[in-house]
Amino acid sequence: MELSDILALLDRFDASSAASMKLRLGDLRLELNKNAAPAAVAPAAVPAVAAPAAVAAPVPAAEAPKAQAEGTTVKAPLVGTFYAASAPGEAPFVSVGDTVKKGQTLCVLEAMKMMSEVPAPCDCVILETLAKDGDLVGFDAPLFQIREL
Predict the structure, then answer these.
(1) Would you call 127 exposed, middle or buried from its count of C-beta atoms within 10 A (0-12, 13-18, 19+)?
(2) Residue 9 belongs to what H/E stretch?
(3) In Å, how far from its chain's centre is CA 10?
(4) Is the pTM value of this prediction over 0.70?
(5) What distance in Å separates the CA atoms of residue 20 and residue 33, rounded to the nearest whole number?
(6) Ramachandran sector of residue 116 (left: φ over 0; alpha: ψ -120 to 50; beta: rest)
């Protein structure tokens, strides 16, 4: 299975009403769960479904005006673990205030032991890093706040 196939599958899963999915193709094993983080916090199935809706709705609403006022948000192209640097102890790819060129690596996302670089969409200045090193980020999760040059 190619990375593009996995990304397309993640997009379709995210757009679907399915809450979880398991896929096995040879050695490849993929488990997707939209409520993975809340389920770990709240063991009851019904509150776990209700709680994310109440918690998740205000966060994008609060960030949307900020994104419009201060620039553009770079979002995660896939679900994975956010890493600001190429290895532990290394300097981050970018820091707040850095001027970067289109295509320059902003961070990497690890998904299924594969590292995917997230490039700058344009020449820009980094205003804010919105994800923390080691955080699990979802598809379309905000990673950076940038101002286009």
Answers:
(1) middle
(2) helix 3-15
(3) 12
(4) no
(5) 4
(6) beta
* DSSP helix/strand/coil, 49: helix
User: pLDDT by residue (tens digit) across 84-141?
Assistant: 999 989 999 999 999 999 999 999 999 998 999 999 999 999 999 999 999 999 999 9
* Alpha carbon distance 2, 70 (integer Å): 36
Contacts 24+ apart (CB under 8 A), 84-90: 84/129, 84/133, 85/133
- Read off the tokens for 72: 């553009």
3-state secondary structure 89-142: CCCECCCCCCEECCCCEEEEEEECCEEEEEECCCCEEEEEECCCCCCEECCCCE
Contacts with 5 (C-beta within 8 Å, 6 or more apart), sequence order: none
> Residue 149 corresponds to which amino acid?
L
Burial 41-80 (b: 16+ CB within 10 A, else e): ebeeeeebeebbeeeeeeeeeeeeeebeeebbbbbbbbbb
